[in-house]
């Protein structure tokens, strides 16, 4: 099993660190497998919200998605994605230039999808889930 | 997977966890369970209100962004239902100002997502600890007892507001930030917060950050181990550890160097101290009260004070009014001090003459209460007794009064008559207009961050 962090975010900054997720799964004990599935389900919801926000464009929708991704990515150990989501959130509140929102939203979308794959792969490694689809 | 559970630092707490993201709900619950606490969960405000009516919860952890209601509104409804409940709010990084608002409205603490495990447990245990029976508050050393001359003597509206603020904040864990000119009684205010709090039986440790050489300040605050540096001849616990179970008062906090500000921020986030040279941090339970005679926001703007630390500390501000704005308090304080110092010196004075009273009311008192006390002590020491007359006064105040009355009025017609706060509003508004409504561009011109302007605009809109 590799402990090497792997990139889930195109920004290339601090990548997903599986050790953080493993620590949470250990804390969850018997609930580890449901927690893993729920992480992926919650990320999928935010991904869908993000997609809808990009298509709109729907700024409040993007703000809600960014808000959710900050917490999910940061908790799961993907600091780079959390950072992108924070930057996206700032564009939706007027704290940063809104012109950078489309680019940040696309990066966040790619980052969420990569994190979902990384978490699923981690589940397979730990014997908590089947192979990622 | 093996599950280990540590012994909780406090009696196990029953926590209501209000979080709509299910995975985060599961994570927070697992962390609390591992720390020996029990968490009931709710995904909406409605569920939370139902749960609080049926459970004996000591602490509620509330995500400020919920699907069916605003977290602040829910917090108020929960407190209305259960006033003894301790509330810890959780927010994403983008809504720190909302968390500060929550603290002002009665939240016990706040956590920023992603939530650190140790910080989550620490916040819950601190909050739960507060629900134990509280010792009877110690009365203030103010005019009511006459025990502390010149401190909270006075009945002006400005001081009544200060007293009311102290009463309302004392029982909370919220950090108090006291501002005011030198000599206005900031330390006495901090002591009053401590003495009216449930920590009154604990220590009150005061540290003047501006009076201690910066290279010694870290070990003064956080302590050091014997041999950790030249001159460390024995272990020293530090002010933060010495204040465990009580209050740490950091005076002139804006004078701290950036490196130590970082350590103070870490201390506030983790509630742990690590003395210089120590290998392990130690958990402490300390309430922070800090003070400055500078404008803290200006220090942030100039890059001298960390913005994140500012928001951590500037939760409940208390402004100590200068003596010149306290009306007849100056007479009450002078007479109380005269009686006190006369008793100390074994002399008998018959109060202040009408001319001295008029003079004291007119004078600007740049040194505030501290200066007034020095003047009264000077009178008592240099005179035998009787009615205090103008010729008993030391020279300095009279000279300064003359200087003050000759000061020219501000000459800029458009701003004349406006308060400093009003001038700031004018400056911000015109800058935004000049940039066609662009807040970020106006912020660049004013050399502040856009979030600073948005916060100000939000506040003005509320006012």
Name its key features.
heterodimer; A: mainly alpha; 5 helices; disordered N terminus; B: about 475 residues; alpha/beta; five-stranded parallel sheet; 14 strands; globular
Shape of chain B: globular
Silhouette of chain A? elongated
In the predicted model, the low-confidence regions of chain B spanning at least 5 consecutive residues are 1-9, 130-150, 397-413
Which two chains form the greatest contact, residue counts included?
A-B, 34 and 25 residues
Amino- and carboxy-terminal Cα gap of chain B? 55 Å
Average pLDDT across residues of chain B?
A: 78
- Sheet with most strands of chain B: 5 strands, parallel
- Structural class of chain A, please? mainly alpha
**What is the number of helices of chain A?**
5
Assembly level:
heterodimer
Mean pLDDT across every amino acid position of chain A? 83
Sequence of strands across the biggest β-sheet of chain B: 2-1-3-4-5
CA gyration radius of chain A, whole angstroms: 15 Å
Tell me the structural class of chain B: alpha/beta
Task: Give the DSSP E fraction of chain A (strand runs of 2 or more residues).
Answer: under 5%
Instruction: Outline the biggest β-sheet of chain A.
Output: none
Number of strands of chain A: 0
Query: What level of helicity do the residues of chain B show?
Result: 40-55%
């Amino acid at each position: 099993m590799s402990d090497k962090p792997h990139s889930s975010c195109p920004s290339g900054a601090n990548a997903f660190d599986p050790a953080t997720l493993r620590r949470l799964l250990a804390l969850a004990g018997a609930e580890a497998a449901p927690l893993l599935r729920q992480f992926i389900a919650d990320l999928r919801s935010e991904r869908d919200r993000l997609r809808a926000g990009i298509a709109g464009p729907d700024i409040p929708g993007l703000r809600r998605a960014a808000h959710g991704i900050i917490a999910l990515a940061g908790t799961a150990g993907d600091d780079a994605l959390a950072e992108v989501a924070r930057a996206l959130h700032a564009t939706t509140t007027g704290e940063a230039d809104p012109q950078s929102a489309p680019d940040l939203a696309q990066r966040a979308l790619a980052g969420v999808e990569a994190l979902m794959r990384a978490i699923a792969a981690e589940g397979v490694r730990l014997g908590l889930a089947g192979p990622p689809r | 997977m093996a599950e280990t559970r540590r012994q909780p630092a406090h009696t196990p707490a029953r926590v209501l966890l209000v979080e709509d993201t299910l995975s985060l709900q599961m994570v927070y619950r697992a962390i609390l369970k591992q720390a020996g606490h029990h968490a009931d969960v709710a995904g909406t405000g409605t569920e939370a209100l139902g749960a609080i009516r049926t459970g004996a919860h000591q602490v509620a952890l509330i995500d400020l962004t919920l699907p069916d209601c605003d977290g602040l509104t829910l917090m108020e409804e929960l407190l209305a239902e259960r006033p003894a409940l301790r509330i810890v709010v959780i927010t994403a990084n983008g809504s720190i100002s909302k968390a500060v608002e929550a603290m002002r409205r009665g939240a016990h603490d706040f956590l920023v997502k992603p939530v650190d495990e140790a910080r989550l447990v620490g916040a819950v245990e601190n909050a739960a600890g507060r629900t134990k029976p509280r010792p009877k508050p110690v009365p203030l050393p103010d005019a009511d007892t006459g025990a502390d001359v010149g401190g909270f003597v006075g009945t002006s509206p400005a001081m009544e507001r200060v007293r009311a603020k102290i009463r309302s904040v004392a029982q909370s864990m919220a950090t108090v930030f006291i501002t005011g000119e030198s000599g206005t009684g900031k330390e006495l205010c901090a002591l009053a917060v401590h003495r009216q709090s449930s920590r009154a039986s604990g220590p009150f440790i005061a540290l003047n950050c501006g009076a201690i050489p910066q290279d010694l300040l870290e070990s003064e605050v956080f302590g050091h181990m014997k041999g950790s540096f030249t001159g460390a001849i024995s272990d020293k616990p530090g002010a933060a550890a010495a204040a465990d179970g009580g209050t740490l008062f950091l005076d002139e906090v804006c004078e701290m160097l950036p490196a130590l500000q970082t350590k103070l921020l870490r201390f506030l986030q983790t509630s742990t101290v690590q003395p210089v040279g120590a290998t392990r941090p130690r958990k402490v339970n300390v309430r922070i009260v800090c003070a400055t005679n500078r404008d803290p926001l200006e220090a942030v703007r100039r890059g001298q004070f960390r913005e994140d630390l500012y928001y951590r500390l500037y939760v409940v501000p208390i402004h100590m009014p200068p003596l010149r704005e306290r009306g007849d308090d100056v007479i009450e304080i002078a007479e109380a001090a005269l009686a006190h110092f006369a008793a100390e010196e074994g002399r008998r004075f018959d109060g202040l003459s009408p001319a001295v009273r008029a003079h004291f009311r007119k004078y600007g008192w740049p040194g505030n209460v501290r200066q007034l006390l020095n003047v009264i002590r000077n009178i008592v020491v240099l005179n035998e007794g009787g009615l205090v007359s103008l010729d008993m006064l030391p020279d300095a105040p009279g000279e300064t009064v003359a200087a003050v009355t000759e000061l020219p009025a501000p000459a800029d017609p458009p701003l004349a008559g406006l308060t400093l706060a009003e001038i700031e509003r004018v400056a911000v508004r015109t800058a935004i207009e000049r940039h066609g409504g662009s807040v970020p561009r106006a912020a660049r011109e004013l050399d502040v961050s856009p979030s600073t302007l948005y916060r100000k605009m939000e506040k003005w809109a509320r006012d």
